[in-house]
Specification:
The complex is a heterodimer of chains A (97) and B (491). Chain A is mostly helical and 97 residues long. Chain A has 3 helices and 2 strands, in the order H-H-H-E-E. In chain B, strands 1-3-2-4-6-5-10-11-9-7-8 form an 11-stranded mixed β-sheet, sandwiched between helices. The interface between A and B is large, with 52 and 78 residues.
Chain lengths: 97, 491
């Protein structure tokens, strides 16, 4: 599989990364280099192998905590690093006309 | 002996005997930072005032006979750990002004035990890199240099390059670090110090800026194996705020360091004898095995047949998780914002401006391998190969108690020996990455010098949650190696 320029633009759009036209060609070459190298995984016989999910070295059950409110009422802390705010809300450009 | 030359264990002893106060010790390190950091660039942020205040509080506790496990020990904190009220950048422009209103569990544990934080240490942006050259705050320099070319500036490795360089140059007694594919062990080896990536789940990931959640694990770097054991004991422990944190008791790792290797079976994986492995590295590996044999260990050849697929597996899994984790940096809730014509334009401009080239590259790879039509071929396939890599280790544990390999395929390289091709750069982690994929503990120990006088390390990999055996083997290698070489640039 090899990425064409249109796919590079599509992936950048999915990733929400603005891409200048001048960057497409270089990125296309780099990504194809990496993906070409990753291709070797296709040589491995994985028939019947359960995919490993998570990083635990042994299968561990995800613990459950009690469904209780343990936190809250920290608007100032939550908003402390906001680039823009309106009262107790994050400020963003108008989304709906 | 200068206070900055003390090991962490010696520092605790000197503090206990009142040979030095925590304030004096901290001041020595702050002076060293002031002198050397402009060149090394190991610290992004120095918190001198807070450090001296904490040191004074520590001295007061000790005077009352209430000293804690790490009381008065000056440490550096990798700038990937959120520290309450202190800027935390992850080496990225997108978090350049971020001041967390909370403290990571690992750094909170260290504070609980009385450690003094000198500041925040440089790293590859979002921990993505093996040379520390991707940091938005500039590269870190390795305090070591080549005997025949002392002017050539070398990289400290990455991503915990600031942590390793600071400890090697005596700008901290120890430091926190994180390891997703080798980011503790590779820089430790490049800087001639020790560093352990513990078992996945041993340390809480809560409050650490996430890169690849199923691979990331925090650990210490310090000059000796024993110092690592002391630090890990404080850093580790169950944390209900991280659902992958293991609910297991934390052993006395320090006691394990001197345990010896008599009767232990040490595995040597045939697949790690890579074509073109530098003869000096191969010789050091053989030397390490001879040392262990002489101490009563049995050397056992083993096979890890899927190890050769570990790096390409990693470069599917890690970018996939990174693309997901880094979706939160959108210019709305925290961090950098670039204004746009609408919300999508704001996201796209913020992320393009805020992330450096390597981070953008990995987000692109991750987004692609998770996208419709490619998920099965790349991501699912990689998760299956990952399961096979883990199974190889499980089979090996039937035959051996620990595995010993080189830590890196070369000594530190120069900053201007730029590895333009990303794949070449990724090969730095070829020996370390299997332990992340399988979730196992791995320790890098300085074991010798190459022909240029640069440090080389060996790696000890152990069973899950058996860091004690890893420390025992690492301690034996350290004693036999008698590594006393020092970097040219040092406090």
């Amino acid at each position: 599989m090899s990425l064409d320029a249109a796919t590079v633009r599509r992936v950048a759009n999915l990733a929400r990364l603005r891409l200048e036209e001048t960057e497409v060609e270089k990125l296309q070459a780099e990504l194809n280099g990496i993906l070409g190298w990753i291709e070797q995984l296709q040589q491995v016989d994985t028939d019947g192998v359960e995919p490993m999910a998570g990083g635990a070295p042994v299968e561990v059950k995800l613990p459950w905590r009690e469904d209780a409110v343990t936190d809250g009422a920290q608007a100032e802390k939550v908003l402390a690093n906001a680039p823009d705010r309106e009262g107790e809300y994050f400020g963003v450009p108008k989304v709906v006309e | 002996m200068r206070p900055t030359d003390l090991t962490l264990a010696e520092g605790l002893e000197a503090l206990d005997k009142r040979e030095i106060s925590a304030v004096e010790l901290t001041q020595s390190f702050l002076d060293a930072i002031e002198r050397l950091n402009p060149r090394l660039n190991a610290y992004i942020t120095v918190t001198g005032e807070a450090a001296l205040a904490d040191a004074a509080a520590s001295d007061a506790r000790r005077a009352k006979g209430e000293a804690r496990a790490l009381d008065g020990i000056p440490l550096g904190i990798k700038d990937l750990f959120c520290t309450e009220g202190t800027r935390t950048t992850a080496g990225s422009n997108i978090l350049g002004g971020f001041v967390p209103p909370y403290e990571s569990t690992v750094s909170a544990n260290l504070k609980r035990d009385g450690a003094v934080f000198l500041g925040k240490l440089n790293l590859d942006e979002f921990a993505m890199g093996s040379s520390n050259q991707t940091s938005a705050f500039g590269p870190v320099e390795n305090p070591w240099s080549r005997a025949n070319d002392p002017e050539k500036r070398l990289v400290p490795g990455g991503s915990s390059g600031g942590s390793a360089a600071a400890v090697a140059a005596r700008l901290a007694m120890g430091a926190t670090a994180t390891d997703t594919g080798g980011s503790i062990r590779q820089p430790a080896a490049f800087c001639g110090i020790a560093g352990i990536k513990p078992t996945y789940g041993r340390c809480s990931r809560w409050g650490i800026v996430a890169f690849a959640s199923s691979l990331d694990q925090a650990g210490p770097v310090a000059r000796t194996v024993e110092d690592n054991a002391i630090l890990l004991r404080s850093m580790a422990g169950h944390d209900p705020k991280d659902s992958t944190s293991a609910n297991l008791p934390v052993p006395d790792f320090q006691a394990a360091v001197g345990r010896g290797v008599k009767g232990l079976r040490i595995g040597v994986p045939a697949e790690y004898r890579l074509d073109g492995l530098a003869p000096e590295i191969a010789a050091l590996w053989d030397q390490g095995l001879d040392w262990l044999r002489a101490e009563g260990a049995e050397i056992v050849p083993i096979s890890l047949p899927h190890a050769q697929y570990a790096l390409p597996t990693y470069y599917v899994v890690a970018p996939a998780e990174a693309s997901s984790n880094l979706a939160r940096y959108d210019g709305v809730r925290f961090g950098l914002r670039e204004n746009g014509s609408d919300l999508k334009d704001l996201y796209e401009r913020t992320r393009a401006r805020g992330f450096g080239a390597e981070v953008r590259r990995r987000i692109m790879i991750g987004t692609y391998v998770l996208s419709a039509g490619y998920y099965d071929a790349y991501y699912l396939k990689a998760q299956k190969v990952r399961a096979l890599i883990r199974r190889d280790f499980e089979l090996a544990w039937g035959k051996v108690d620990a595995i010993v390999t080189p830590a890196t395929p070369s000594a530190a390289f120069a900053m201007d020996e730029k590895q333009d091709d990303p794949v070449t750069m990724y090969l730095n982690d070829v020996f370390t990455v299997t332990a992340n994929l399988a979730g196992l503990p791995g320790l890098a120990v300085p074991a010798g010098l190459d022909g240029q006088g640069l440090p080389l390390g060996l790696q000890v990999i152990g069973r899950a949650f058996d860091e004690e055996t890893v420390f025992a083997v690492g301690g034996a290698i350290e004693r036999a190696a008698g590594f006393t070489a020092k970097p040219g640039m040092m406090a």
